[in-house]
Amino acid sequence: MHKLTIASHRRCGTCGSRGHNRRTCPENYNPDAPKRKTSCGWCAELGHNARTCPNKKGSAAKLAELQPLLEEHVSNTLLKLGIGRGTLMHITGYDGDKGHAIVTGFTLPKQTYYGGVNIFYGDEPQINIVYPNGTKETAWLSGITSAQIGEIVSTLSEEDKPHAIDSLRCWGYSSHTVVCKSSIPVKLTHNLSVKRGQTLCGLKEWKEKLTAHLANVKKSEDSEKTAKAA
């Protein structure tokens, strides 16, 4: 009863009448007014919602196309650090020396692949390792030197180098060391995840960027082989 009394004495700020407010005022109704476009809860684009979002529906297929390119790119990068499948690492944890372990793969913890492509953007990869007793876990990379960073970014464009260098300087903050290197490419041990905010345009941009980068890497490797053979 109290709520009804308050509603009946409410005065509208638009027409001055009682019993409703500005939001529900009948004078606000305009059948010719354009309808407000819906903002999608998945990609934030206008004109659709998360249930009908073309970006959400198409992301899985685009990520499947992106995955082998990203796997090759990260694997190439890790090989320059001496980390491949079968690399022997000495692992040091917060509690001290944990002994030796073998690298079996790598994971990408929080990669999202939105727009604004930087192929070294995001959290550093984590390596999958196994100890002699069969225990498996993930570990951060061993320390990266300035010389290694220089080698990694040597095939990048001048535009991409500064961003890549800034990202790589944040990698390898652990006390782990490489004991015995491997030249066998290491594999990604999980599928890329569909995540809120991804767009088909952004994923396409990632694919194009990685394709161009891997072509530059191959061209550079072929030039080195030709120079050695000469």
Question: Overview of this structure, please?
Answer:
The chain is an alpha+beta fold. The chain has one domain. Helix content is 35%, strand content 13%. The chain contains five helices and five strands. The chain has helices at residues 2-9, 54-80, 146-153, 161-168, 200-229; strands spanning 88-93, 96-107, 126-130, 136-139, 177-180. It has a five-stranded antiparallel β-sheet, with no helix packed on it. A hairpin with a 5-residue loop joins strand 3 and strand 4. The longest helix has 30 residues, at 200-229. The model is unreliable at 1-6 (pLDDT under 50).
Quick gist of this model?
The protein has 230 residues and is of the alpha+beta class. The protein is built from 5 helices and 5 strands, in the order ααββββααβα.
Write the layout of secondary structure elements.
Elements: H1 2-9, H2 54-80, E1 88-93, E2 96-107, E3 126-130, E4 136-139, H3 146-153, H4 161-168, E5 177-180, H5 200-229
Antiparallel strand pairs: 1-2, 1-5, 2-3, 3-4
List keywords for this structure.
5 strands, elongated, disordered N terminus, alpha+beta, 230 residues, 5-stranded antiparallel β-sheet
